[in-house]
Design a protein that fits this description.
Shape: globular
Number of domains: 1
CATH superfamily: HUPs
Number of strands: 7
Helix content: 25-40%
Structural class: alpha/beta
CATH class: Alpha Beta
Strand order of the largest sheet: 4-2-1-6-7
Number of helices: 6
Distance between the termini: 36 Å
Order of helices and strands: EHHEEHHEEHEHE
Radius of gyration: 17 Å
Length: 157
């Protein structure tokens, strides 16, 4: 039923919890994982401007910070891909640039996935908010079912 799933990640601890659910998803038929890391357009603009926001100038060449960020993302993608492949699933990688929620929904459609599995940050300070804004966007706009792996609760929270 869920042969091809979409796993969007920003490599944070909550998003990487999805890896622990792969065996159960394989029991439900998962054979292939589309690994998506969205490079947030806002972050690209900020880094390109040297942290000065829209008032800064965009350099013609890649800065040391941009190079380090690109290399770190590449290493994390490789490590995550290997972890998935070790569990016996075929992996396709996508790294679009743009708005994370919109790019996740677009990737799910373009890749013909049957399920989106994502970790939730729940970063809001408002106690009643359970999901992060990206998770909310995906749930509201995706055509596929969405499985949200909630972050661990902190004692007293």
């Amino acid at each position: 039923m869920f042969e091809r799933i979409l796993f969007p990640t920003d490599f944070s601890e909550p998003s990487m919890k999805v890896l622990g659910y792969i065996p159960a998803l394989q029991e439900a038929g998962t054979r292939e994982v589309v690994l998506v890391h969205v490079i947030d357009q806002k972050d690209v603009t900020l880094i390109a401007s040297g942290g000065q926001g829209f008032l800064g100038t965009v350099p013609d060449r890649e800065t040391e910070t941009q190079r380090q960020l690109r290399e770190e993302i590449q290493h994390r993608i490789i490590d995550t891909r290997r972890a998935l492949e070790k569990q016996g699933v075929k992996v396709t990688v996508r790294t679009p640039v743009g708005n994370p929620g919109k790019e996740i929904v677009a990737a799910a459609d373009a890749e013909g996935t049957s399920l989106i599995v994502l970790g939730s940050h729940g970063r809001s300070n408002i106690r009643d908010r359970l999901l992060g804004t990206v998770s909310e966007y995906v749930i509201k706009n995706a055509l596929q079912p969405v499985l949200v792996i909630k972050r661990d609760r902190v004692a007293g929270g």
